[in-house]
Each structure stands twice: as C-alpha cells, then as structure tokens.
Design brief:
Layout lengths: L4 H14 L2 H15 L3 H14 L4 H6 L7 H4 L5 H11 L6 H4 L1 H7 L8 E3 L5 H10 L2 E5 L9 E5 L6 H10 L4 E3 L6 H6 L7 E7 L4 E10 L13 E4 L10 E2 L6 E2 L17 H11 L8 E9 L2 E8 L9 H4 L6 H5 L5
Antiparallel strand pairs: 1-4, 2-3, 2-4, 5-6, 5-10, 6-7, 8-9, 10-11
Helix pairs in contact: 2-3, 9-10
Length: 338
Amino acid sequence: MQIDVRARARYAVNRLKRFSPTRIWALARKIGGEHRKWTLPVFVDMLWWAAFHDTAFIDYYEADFASLTPKERKTFMTSLIQHHIAVSVNDAEVAELFADKRRFLRRFAPYVHREWIDLEEVGAAELQAFCERHPVIIAKVPISREGHGVFRHDTAEVTDWEAYHAELVGSGQLLVEEPIVQHPYLAEYCAGTVNTTRVTTYFDGTTVHRLVMVQKFGRGSVSDQFSWGGFFTMLDDDGHSVGRGHSGKNDTFYAVHPDSGHSIIDYQVPLWDQVEALTDRIGREVPEVPYVGWDIAVTADGPELIEGNWIPGLYETRVLATGIRTGTRPRHEAVMTW
C-alpha cells in the first residue's frame, strides 16, 4: 500500500497549516487519561504516526492507537489512506452523480421506493399536492454531506404555498422526499430517526466485495449522523453487532441504546440477506466508481437505498468499546490495488 508523493505532500502541508501544539497536547492528555498513559509519550507518538504513517491525530484517537501495537495499528484504515483509495480507483468525473442527491436518485431509481420531487422542476401547486400526500416531509440540500443540510418539516399548518416553496428554494432545500418508514425492529431502537446501515463495497469487475459494514443509530433527530448526536456499531459478515456502539468522537460507549434501552451488543440487521443482495446489485451499477459507501434503510418490505458516498467515510472499531484489536485494512488490501 503506497500513498503517492503528491498526496503525502498535500497532507503534510494541510497538517502544518492547521497544526496547533496546544490543541494536540490537549488531545494527547485526553488520550492518556482514557488509556492510562503519560501525556508526553502519547504526544510524541501521535506526531510520529502523523508524520510517517498517514495517521491524522483524530484517527489516532478514534482507533485507540494508544492501546495498540504498531502491527495492530497497521490493520486500521486512516482518513488519508481511505481518501487516497477513493480518488485513485474512482473516476472523479463520473462520481459527480453521487454528489448531487437528485442525480443519484434518478440514476438509482429502481432501488428507490420513496416519492420525491425537485423544487427546481416543480412549482408551489405540485409541492402542495406532495405535502397533502405526505404532511411530514424530509427536505434536503442536494449537495451536502454528513447529515448537514437535512431537515424534517411538518407542513400541516402551511397555508401560503407560494411563500413556502420560495422559502425552501431560498434555503437550498431543493430536494423534498417522502419519509421512510423503517422496519419495526429498528423503530424499537429509535423511532424518531431512520437508523441506517452503511455498507462500503468494492467492485473488482466480477465480484462486489463488502469491506465495511456499520449500523448507525439516531437519538430522535432527522439524521443518525454524528452531527445529530448519532452513534454506530461495527457489523460482522452476518450483519450482527461486534460489540458496544460509539461515536468515535469521545469515550462514551453504548451497550444499550441510551433512549430505548435496547441492546446494541445483540443487534442484528433485519433482512440482512436482502441487504447483501441489494449491495451486490447496486455495487455493479457504476463500474467507473467501484468503491462506494452505501446508506441503506431497512423497511418491513425490504431495504431502501438512500444514497451512495464515493468517498465512503471512515468507520473502524475501537478496542476500548469492543476489545477487537484489528481493523478493516486487510479486507481492503485483499481485493484492491492502488
């Protein structure tokens, strides 16, 4: 696995621009407290792995590198490595269809079962008719990531539809969707949020390989992303949780969902065989973009495709949460070259 010189140089320059010894020392002190280690050795180790092993400081923290051996650390993906893979194997021009949620929904229409409209194509009358069918709507900024630009609106009290249409367009919320009704088992965990399954796949031209499987959980907000208070648990090849959930951003771990009390450790993705079948089909759809992180909502009628991310997002286990001391890098290396 080699990162090209230009990518390393860009990474180094960006790190130097943002380097703050005070901030990194504070993170090292936090890590030392969580792992019962002295701050100074952790601080030095963080700098070493950032300089020579493509490991951002937040990656060092989120993967619990302070408690792993060098050999174990090298089984984990890092942000730089994953980004390098994505830009190396994916055609950036073709990948633009993943960036705009409207283009994505049109391209993957056979796998999308919810109704949606584009406010750049329909007027106030069509919006009103849509909202009469679906009084609660999900409005999205079409080009947005990580749960930003996603809103839930109750339109029952709207009377001036011209003004409401203009308001949504003015705020960039051009994509309006019917809310997804998730599987009852998932609703038991958190009914107020659609709890999605992230599956990162790689298509080698013959086989779709599932490299990373994650179940995300919300806390009642419109999104289950970290920015909305969500957390996740890694999944095994059978769609079962490998241990406690976490957000990666702090040392809070979840053996049970903090609101519903349902077990995260015992969680099993419902209809997992159908999720596998779906990822096998969608992973072949755009061979020019073989490496994708797919967000899927499981409903009582089967899995529903939400979106695809051509830079999949970094998800790894934490030894403090699960006791697992190996990451997903070997799974990538077994099927990919870059």
